Amino acid sequence: MPTIRIESLNKSFQVKKKQAGLGASLKGLFNPKYEEKLAVNNINFTVEQGELLAFLGPNGAGKSTTIKMLTGILHPSSGSAEVLGYSPWNQRKKLAFHIGSVFGQKSQLWYHLPPSDTFELMSRIYEIRRSDYLERRDHLVRSFELEPYFHIPVRKMSLGERMRCEIAVALLHRPKVVFLDEPTIGLDVVVKLRIRELIREMNREEGTTIFLTSHDAGDVEQLCERAIVINHGKIILDDKVTKLKKELLTHKKIRLLLAEEPHSFAINGATVIARDGLQYTLSVDTSLVPIESVLEQLIHQCRIHDVTIEDPPMEEIITHIYAQKNTSASMGVN
Ligand SMILES: Nc1ncnc2c1ncn2[C@@H]1O[C@H](COP(=O)(O)OP(=O)(O)OP(=O)(O)O)[C@@H](O)[C@H]1O
């Protein structure tokens, strides 16, 4: 039995219809007209236990609405879904004992209290036996390296430290499925890498199914095995990340700040796409040349003050998928 099963799932919202013109707007205040907004449009997929799935899409695509249905926060307009054999919206409380969720933009931790207090409270909410709780808490504190700030108020922590606590507390009741909504948003590169490592570890060691949404192509590339892309409420791609990497995650941007004007500047495999004084932006097609080779050439040709490597924004990748799909459709290819 799959861990998550979604069949013909739809969710529409009633939204106020915007009316053009001042008169119509005023009339609309007293006699509002409504229209249906289809946020999730007939989606189908399954997820197996232990899968690392990226659920992607641009803003407003329908990701959060789907997650809200899978966690039982929202009822669908039609269709069915099962998570670990439970109907999320009909058996929300039972399901809550087996799933965890982390929302990058919202905190589960008490802002003015130390994480240790939130852990205590959660252990009671999840009715965890005292000895099991203490063992689990110590294990999580060790593996997420929380000791230095486990007893200080959350408000005094950096975003990265807080995020580690958020993920750790979401794992307290040993959930079989974890929904991670933008877990690396706003974090610096080093902290992002560490968070990804921790997510990978929990998947490997405990077989946790990971359902991740992110606008960061790096999260998808380094963490997930499979990606589902949703746009305008419809699924437009469901494929292995290795395939996505070969076909779509091939362009990287290198931003350089040079210490001095270079004598020569010809980098095999990279194109200069912007320049402002000593700041250069290069585009690299990693399917043609590895990024390491470009960096090596750069080090030999110029004195570098600062360098960053960026993935293309998720929006760009999705636009590309969309364009490809439309081209195939117009050529009669499926
Ligand atoms: N409660 C609501 N009432 C009306 N419309 C809603 C409601 N919740 C979501 N929507 C609409 O449904 C669509 C899908 O929204 P959703 O939040 O699922 O997108 P998302 O993919 O999670 O976007 P983001 O990446 O910005 O979080 C959007 O057009 C949004 O405006």
From TrEMBL:
<dbReference type="GO" id="GO:0016887">
    <property type="term" value="F:ATP hydrolysis activity"/>
</dbReference>
<keyword id="KW-0547">Nucleotide-binding</keyword>
<dbReference type="Pfam" id="PF00005">
    <property type="entry name" value="ABC_tran"/>
</dbReference>
<dbReference type="InterPro" id="IPR027417">
    <property type="entry name" value="P-loop_NTPase"/>
</dbReference>
<keyword id="KW-0813">Transport</keyword>
<protein>
    <submittedName>
        <fullName>ATP-binding cassette domain-containing protein</fullName>
    </submittedName>
</protein>
<dbReference type="InterPro" id="IPR050763">
    <property type="entry name" value="ABC_transporter_ATP-binding"/>
</dbReference>
<feature type="domain" description="ABC transporter">
    <location>
        <begin position="4"/>
        <end position="257"/>
    </location>
</feature>
<dbReference type="InterPro" id="IPR003593">
    <property type="entry name" value="AAA+_ATPase"/>
</dbReference>
<dbReference type="InterPro" id="IPR003439">
    <property type="entry name" value="ABC_transporter-like_ATP-bd"/>
</dbReference>
<dbReference type="GO" id="GO:0005524">
    <property type="term" value="F:ATP binding"/>
</dbReference>
<keyword id="KW-0067">ATP-binding</keyword>
